[in-house]
Amino acid sequence: MTADQTLDPITVEVIGNALSTVVEEMGRALMRASYSANIKERRDCSAAIFDTEGHVIAQAQQIPLHFGSLLGILQETVKRTDMSQLRPGDVFIGNDAFTGGGTHLNDIVFLEPVFYDDALVAWVANIAHHSDFVDRGHAHIFQEGLRIPPVKLYREGVLQDDVMNLVLLNCQVPDERVNDFRAQYSSNRQGLQRYQSLCERYGVAKLHAAQNALLDYAERKARAGITAIPDGVYPFECDFDTSLWPDILHLKVLVEVSGDEIRFDFDGCPDQTRSGLNMVFTVLQACVYLVVKSLIDRDTPANAGFHRPIRIEAPYGSIVNAAPPAAVYSRHDVAQRLVDMMYAALAQAIPERVPAASTGVTVQTMSGINPRTGAFYVYNESMGGGMGARATLDGLDGVHVNTTNSANIPVEALETEHPLRVEAYELVQDSGGPGRFRGGMAIRRKISPVGHAATANLGGPLTRIPAWGLDGGHDGSLSHIEMSAGAAALKERNGVLTDGQSAAVHTSGGGGQGDPKLRDRDLVRRDLREGRISEKAAKEIYGLE
């Protein structure tokens, strides 16, 4: 009798939960062992397990956008590697958007094969954002940092010093990188050992049969969820702006639902630009999968099975499916907007499930020579803001949303690790889009260098075109940068701050849902009492008497 003939639903569920636990443990191990604040505090990392065919079996609930890199490096590694020469203990790294399966160069993936009884049984992978590449151009990818195709950093468990030295030579903060690399290696080793223990407990045949059953189950759940969406063709288009590019970009999406399948068509989006805004196709996949996963049954397993009823079409060479040598550093700007657009398109069919538009990602980067240590440092943080209001709930305040989902660097950690002072960190009054349900509030964070001159790079999207409201809800507030008196104006997002000068980032607010005059009066009074809205807004917009 074969393994799948004896497989019962309870065993499948137990194995599914075990696999989910393994990837969550991998993510936690990476955060606990990492050196840089960007990983251990902001949690800008992810983990996943793949089967031998390259299908994602389990993905940690961390950064949805990272799935594009995790998916891409495995495909590229298999394509470029003589699999007969693969050995236990081999560890690949990569980051390149066009040859390494990455989505931008700061995100470096560690990929390791899992062997059991001398046979390849799975792959484990993790990804972490390394805040290292600063003071670089973004006209094409050659300016953005070191490009790493899939290469073996470890061969049969032995560190390849020449490869490590090559990578570290191209890093501006090598001590951080080497220690974060060790954390990534350890994370994969934990995942490998956990998976091997599942092989020992259940046997490889039963484990693989359960994985296939989980893929089929996710497909059935996805098809059932798509079937619940009314058939139809739902287009949406909007203008998009960012301080990274001078022109307004007009983005388009068309969502077609037909029975138990759904198609996303991005024909009509602009050509790729000479800026870091461009997305490779795996980023687009990650965005679409996020939208579908969040709108159908949330208990649908996060594996490749739910991808099967989804079709994605995008013109090659466009900003959403870029060709080399396009720059890709700020691909999250367009990615965030596309997610909101897909939600807005589907609001025509399922308005009760869809949020209004949310904040973008405003980036705050400072670097220089740390006067305490004499070493070069990099502080880099992508700032959240206001989530769009939901159909029956306010949007969340001061958070990352959609594809990014990372945390902030606490003030105490930031000031301990960098020669910087946080002078303000607060929610911005009247920044959430008014509505029956209010959009989430934006963040203001003001930072100054201590005892040195720092190079600052500040900016992001939604400086001219705000996050939109739905069903009569108002738009959220715009993002902007505030420089202190005497500080030089930013030129192409860059400037220098001396001791005593400061720069503040105001992120953008989320859009509201519904007529603000229909908002519950007690909620309006509470917002006013807590300083979320001003007296003027309470009276003139919400109609509070």
Automatic annotation (TrEMBL):
Cite the InterPro entries for this sequence: Hydantoinase_B (IPR003692), Oxoprolinase-like (IPR045079)
Q: Which residues form the Hydantoinase B/oxoprolinase domain?
A: 8-516
Q: Where is the composition biased (Basic and acidic residues)?
A: 516-530
Where, if anywhere, are coiled coils annotated? none
Q: Where is this region: Disordered?
A: 500-530
Protein name per UniProt? Hydantoinase B/oxoprolinase family protein
Q: Which organism is it from?
A: Psychromarinibacter halotolerans
- Lineage of the source organism? Bacteria, Pseudomonadati, Pseudomonadota, Alphaproteobacteria, Rhodobacterales
